[in-house]
Design a protein that fits this description.
Two copies of one chain form a homodimer. The first copy, chain A, is of the alpha/beta class. The first copy, chain A, has a domain at about 5-115 and about 210-215: Thiolase/Chalcone synthase (Peroxisomal Thiolase, Chain A, domain 1, 3-Layer(aba) Sandwich), CATH 3.40.47.10. The first copy, chain A, is built from 14 helices and eleven strands. Chain A has helices spanning about 20-35, 50-55, 60-65, 85-95, 115-125, 130-135, 140-155, 160-170, 185-190, 245-260, 275-285, 295-300, 315-320, 330-340; strands spanning about 5-10, 45, 75-80, 105-110, 195, 200, 210-215, 225-230, 265-270, 355-360, 365-375. In chain A, helix 4 packs across helix 14, helix 8 (about 160-170) crosses helix 11 (about 275-285) and helix 11 crosses helix 12. The longest helix of chain A has 16 residues, at about 20-35. The two termini of chain A are about 25 Å apart. At the A-B interface, helix 3, strand 3, helix 4, strand 8 and helix 10 of A face helix 3, strand 3, helix 4, strand 8 and helix 10 of B. Strand 3 (about 75-80) of chain A pairs antiparallel with strand 3 of chain B.
Chain lengths: ~375, ~375
């Protein structure tokens, strides 16, 4: 398998935006093109979770390739629910690693704020098990089940959980691309609206618009894709043996570390899918950065702060940077590259060799882990 | 780049079906699993053009992987409008050719008949250029423009064009998987309802349900993937320099033949995207089987009949086998494998070494060509 390198990255500011999905994707793509120095590609991979539902947009891969002036480059759309941006990265990796493509452009975007919040919530809830959905489950409801169980098993309190939101908002406040750019307090979290006990509004990532882009190449550059892994899990949450950890993340991480030939101890910074605050803790344990229950301890001890021993979501994460569903998995890759190359405009660890991303599709039915290596 | 082989195939009967998308996909997948002799996979690729619009189904790749009992295999959905099944094949090819996956399962399905025809037509028209759509264009309208121009340039008459439908219905009548299984006459075509001049009802492929599956592997088998190519074109038809030929097919074919190291003269059977009868003629010329205008002559001379020198759509094609949009590109691959291995239940050429498929995404904005080789 050929080595694959990252030649360029691009991202829009996330938030409630007025421009079209196409315009946002083009903005992110053009930044990545300039960053890479390339202007022709062997393939274009476009990711969006549900542009039909959010916008009524179809045939997105062809449209974007045309608008970018990249015709006749082959193009396809990839989708895996809320991990779409990461699955896209996998598809592009295979194209380059196979030797069939020397350079590919990967772009993800989602516009979610154009529909009423109730419709957005409906679209998001369609990714969970149909039977559980008919019995009233939603994404936050299932996440709340998982969170409550974690509290019981590991002694996590609501005030401790609020530290994730406080940390990530503080990080996001220094990230010019973030949806939310203001700091919050534990009291802000504790007094915010209860969404589904024990999750409050500030425990949930926002509905956002945003796009991200990455150029992959077979030519050595400053950042190498060291490894990636992907795994699925049963759609029905009630059929799983463990509510407080996601097998799909664990298997994905094992595969990624095996490919990279390193261990979790080698990771210097991580972007973890904190669609809900508890998912950051669970995800950090599932990828192996901490033992079960250890994510809580690391949070309380400040280890995961941007200046801690192992920063998690130094960018602000999905919680504060925002969560345009199809984009987040690729935005995490962009953030890790910004950190590894020292180009992130927010406080982040310096001189790190390996950075990790973890993305969750659906209620952890399709999760991915990527590991990037800085070559110095 | 590693060689990639086809280890198994599966397909449902096409038509107006009562079972769910998931059930149809599972049926095709299980046939392919049994055919391949494998029951575990390194990845699952699922294709559907618009299950959200036709059915309200989301997170399809995870759902199918779970229902097939293949968790935790990585899974993703691929989409490229009406060439989705072929783009899926490309994504799976890259996964195996890279060496990252040894065995992948590729499945495509679409249920279109559950919504009223007017809604299906609306969904299909969303893939064309937004500006042309707002001015009243639909898929058949743009195809009609192309057909009329071909008639002017190459002297094709409506009665000659009807020969495509007559041939493909005669072929479909002998294919137990076909949507339509009755022969028709030139008079039937000529007296059918005018859809968009010069295209009549019998010049258009039907709205169908159906699924297809293919197992790709790095282990030598009877069928090798000799080559494939993909290319995009401008979304807006009015911006193109040629209405009677599709640049995207031409470039895709050049790439496929280059990879396979053969020429069009080596092809012994072909499945061409005859969503409209004229597209079979145009497609056969674009892939290089005949010179411009030569597709008409070959049709009239019976060369493309199932017992002619170069059979085209011996299966009945999209016209008679049916056209579940996301499935067709992969169904073509299944048909070619059936023909190359002598397992097709309909009359088809014997002892052929190379078979070709050509798939059209949108109004020829994202086209693919694959070439399969029988190893004897």
């Amino acid at each position: 398998m050929k080595n694959v390198w990252i030649a360029g990255i691009g991202m829009t500011k996330f938030g409630r935006r007025k421009d079209s999905l196409e315009d946002m994707i083009l903005e992110a793509a053009r930044i990545a093109l300039v960053d890479s120095g390339y202007d022709d590609f062997d393939a274009v991979y476009v990711g969006a979770m549900h542009p039909e539902g959010f916008l009524g947009t179809s045939n997105l891969a062809s449209v974007i390739t045309d608008y970018l002036g990249l015709v006749p480059a082959p193009a396809m759309r990839v989708e895996s629910a809320s991990s779409t941006g990461a699955a896209l990265f996998t598809a592009g990796f295979h194209a380059v690693a196979s030797g069939d493509c020397r350079r590919v452009l990967i772009i993800a975007g989602e516009v979610m704020t154009r529909v009423p919040t109730s419709k957005a919530t409906h679209i998001l809830s369609q990714v969970i098990d149909g039977d559980e959905r008919r019995h009233g489950a939603t994404m936050p409801a299932l996440a709340a089940l998982s969170t409550r169980r974690y509290m019981v098993e590991y002694g996590l309190t609501s005030r401790e959980l609020a530290l994730v939101a406080v940390k990530n908002h503080a990080n996001g406040a220094r990230n010019p691309y973030a949806h939310f750019q203001k700091e919050i307090t534990i009291e802000d979290v504790m007094s915010s609206k209860l969404i589904c006990d024990p999750l409050r509004l500030y425990d949930c990532s926002p509905i956002s618009d945003g796009a991200a882009a990455v150029v992959l190449t077979d030519t050595p550059s400053a950042i190498r894709v060291a490894g990636f892994g992907q795994a699925t899990d049963l759609i029905s949450v009630q059929m799983r043996s463990d509510l407080t950890h996601f097998t799909s993340t664990r298997i994905a991480a094992e595969r990624a570390f095996k490919m990279a030939g390193i261990s979790p101890a080698d990771i210097g910074t991580a972007e973890i899918h904190d669609a809900f605050t508890s998912f950051e803790i669970i995800g950090s344990e599932d990828v192996g950065l901490f033992p079960p229950g250890g994510g809580r301890r690391a949070l309380i001890d400040g280890i995961t702060q941007h200046d801690g021993r192992l920063p998690i979501n130094a960018s602000g994460g999905l919680k504060a940077r925002g969560h345009p569903v199809g984009t987040s998995g690729l935005a995490q890759v962009v953030e890790i590259v910004l950190q590894l190359t020292g180009k992130a405009q927010y406080p982040h660890p310096q001189g790190v060799r390996y950075g990790l991303t973890q993305s969750v599709g659906g209620l952890a039915t399709n999760n991915l882990v990527t590991i990037m290596e800085a070559i110095r």
